């Protein structure tokens, strides 16, 4: 069986989740991929500060967080509060919330994709690859 190689071509991601275990699992996953850069934030307020000062190619964000939740964080990003150039950063929501209401709210706020926890590595990579589109050098999913 051929080993899968996940390669993000040097793209920079922001992980936003208040759960330290989820942050650790995402760090372990992303560290195992080739050419992957990432930073972490524990809540939406910290994420907005990072987005305002750092260029990210994609944001992976929990929806239910203290201080500032993922919905309000996405609203701030999409409205240009952290810079016009950041309005279109792809945002993938990661949540355990199965409700149609959460998915509909994500769509309304301009969140690009909704993934359920727990995350599967291949699904996560496929979603990131899809959201980055032409900006990503394809890896070997073989």
UniProtKB/TrEMBL annotation:
Q: Tell me which residues bear 4-aspartylphosphate.
A: 62
Cite the InterPro entries for this sequence.
CheY-like_superfamily, Sig_transdc_resp-reg_receiver
Transmembrane spans: none
Which GO biological process categories is it annotated with?
Answer: phosphorelay signal transduction system
Q: Which residue intervals define the domain Response regulatory in the entry?
A: 12-132
Q: Which keywords does the record carry?
A: Phosphoprotein
Family matches, as PANTHER family: HISTIDINE KINASE, HYBRID SIGNAL TRANSDUCTION HISTIDINE KINASE J
Q: What is this protein called?
A: Response regulator receiver domain-containing protein
Per the UniProt record, the source organism is: Cyclobacterium xiamenense
């Amino acid at each position: 069986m051929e080993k899968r190689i996940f390669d993000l071509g040097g793209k920079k991601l922001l992980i936003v989740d208040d759960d330290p275990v989820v942050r650790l699992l995402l760090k372990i996953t992303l560290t195992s991929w080739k050419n992957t850069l990432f930073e972490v934030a524990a809540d939406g307020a910290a994420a907005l500060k990072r987005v305002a000062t750092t260029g990210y190619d994609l944001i992976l964000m929990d929806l239910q967080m203290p201080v500032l939740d993922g919905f309000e964080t996405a609203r701030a990003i999409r409205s240009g509060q952290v810079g016009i150039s950041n309005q279109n950063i792809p945002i993938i929501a990661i949540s355990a919330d199965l409700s149609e209401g959460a998915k509909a709210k994500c769509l309304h706020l301009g969140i690009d994709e909704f993934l359920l926890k727990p995350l599967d590595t291949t699904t996560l990579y496929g979603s990131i690859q899809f959201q980055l589109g032409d900006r990503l050098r394809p890896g070997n999913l073989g």
